[in-house]
Amino acid sequence: MRQHIKNIISAVPLVIMVASCNKLSDFGNTNVDPGSTTTPLVGALLTNVEQNLGGSYATSTSGGLFCQYFSETQYPGTGLYASSSLQASFAGNYSSYLEDLQNIITTNTSNNENAVARILKSYIYWNLTDRWGDLPYSEALKGNGTPVYDTQEEIYKGCIQELTDAIAQFDAGTSLITGDIIYSGDVASWKKLANSIRMLMALRLTKKYPAASDYAATQFKAALADAAGYITLNTENFSLTYPGDGYKSPWYSLYDGRKDVGESATMVSLLGSLNDSRQDAYGSSTTGVPYGLERSDIETWANANTGWARILAESYRPAAGGVVVLVTASQIAFARAEAADRGWTTETALTLYQDGINLSFAQWGLSAPAASYFTQSAVAFSAAQGTGANLQQIAIQRYIATYPNGNEGWAEWRRTGYPALTPAVAATNTSKEIPRRYTYASTEYSSNSVNVTAAAARLSGGDSQDSKIWWDQ
Question: Which positions ≥6 away from 171 have C-beta within 8 Å?
């Protein structure tokens, strides 16, 4: 599906001194390939980016292993925090999806198409910086082979401003959005998504800006108050439905001939302790896979327990019609509940918290939990809002509701520390601790040495998987 936009007009290597043919235009279209185009097809570029979002960002088994949504069943390595699994290249994200989105903006076919591209660029940068920390941003996508690495603070603030500006750029639907397979060109939905991402990004900064008058709270409240609104219903979720054939859900493909990873015993145990029926959707059985065992032990266990829980029940990962969700109404409800509990807003935290739980159940087509679910000691609020006393309950429910989005679950666990997770018992890294970030690829040191070295020097522990990124400190 990917469109490679190339200039295929051939250069003429010599000048033929013929009076009747004295300029290049005299050749007409002889040197133009009729099957190619020199103008980017923005609709095709947008479709390409959107259809790859699920597989590239929302179905990461690595992030899911770090936050213990998942466990490896055959070839443990990533789940044992092997350094080779954490040293990864981000370059492909720039040369593919980010470049496609930048080409849409540069082509400038309409304000609305450009605004959508800006929102998706911000979503991707957000996802990348949460994994690596400092990255090329201000000098990226400009043909510069050695771009500087912007600080994560600069990237966060730049993306939040981009989202704000993108909302203002929409022109009330007077120009079309072509190639949009997520919201079918609906401007109102894209505006709600932009505000939702603004809120989630702002809340990610609670360690750096905790007070109600700080940058994070100010940005959160601005998005909350924006007239365009934000995601409140599951029908508004930022999600992809895969039609099948050549475009199958990544969750289906995960078990199409392989069986390397399953729902972790950590997750199954947490849901079981709450008598939480979301397990009916989250796994194919209630036999969770033990977390963090070395290869011989986990293979022995898996061979003895062949009915171990696959990620999602089979009916939730069909070949045709499978859904991957990136941003949900429940996430936004929990974010609003936390903001209220921190005293950032005057909304009612308990109501939003319970709404978040109900929205999560409904997202999976499950009946709302009984009233007794909310009165359990591990679920019920322990204090009035405004002091942050209920943050543990909110964080754990958001962790549950975010499943199986591993990158998001890992980021939220790093931010909040909930639920309390025990590192892999057979961890192979020196610290034996759960990784806090990806490390920069060796190719960055060979191709952009000065700038990646400067970025590594800004990390308190250097370019290590144990070093905390800016907002995690």
Answer: 110, 111, 112
